[in-house]
Amino acid sequence: xxxxxxxxxxxxxxxxxxxxxxxxxxxxxxxxxxxxxxxxxxxxxxxxxxxxxxxxxxxxxxxxxxxxxxxxxxxxxxxxxxxxxxxxxxxxxxxxxxxxxxxxxxxxxxxxxxxxxx
Length: 118
Hints:
The structure is a single chain. The protein has 118 residues and is mainly β. The protein has one domain (14-117). The chain contains 1 helix and 8 strands; from the N terminus they run αββββββββ. The strands form 2 sheets. It has a 4-stranded antiparallel β-sheet with strand order 1-8-7-6, with no helix packed on it. Strands 2-3-4-5 form a 4-stranded antiparallel β-sheet, with no helix packed on it.
């Protein structure tokens, strides 16, 4: 229930050049620009869980949409950022981080991103 309250409070529009967080399935519109970002889908989360020793760090891969243009970004592999329509969209982090004792529900995923003008 607390999570639902947080979602309604965090409906503040992000600003270009500042970090912002976006939930899976959410669309945010930028202040002063005809620009929308949507966190469409979690495509992969193979990040090594806390409490486990892994051969490699793993990767989180997500699908985002900038207005009507779709892109895939990664946490570990490239691309971590992409240029679309005169903007650079950068994936800074994917939360929550996997833990061996907890399964992450789809609706719990949140991206931290930044959009800057090129």
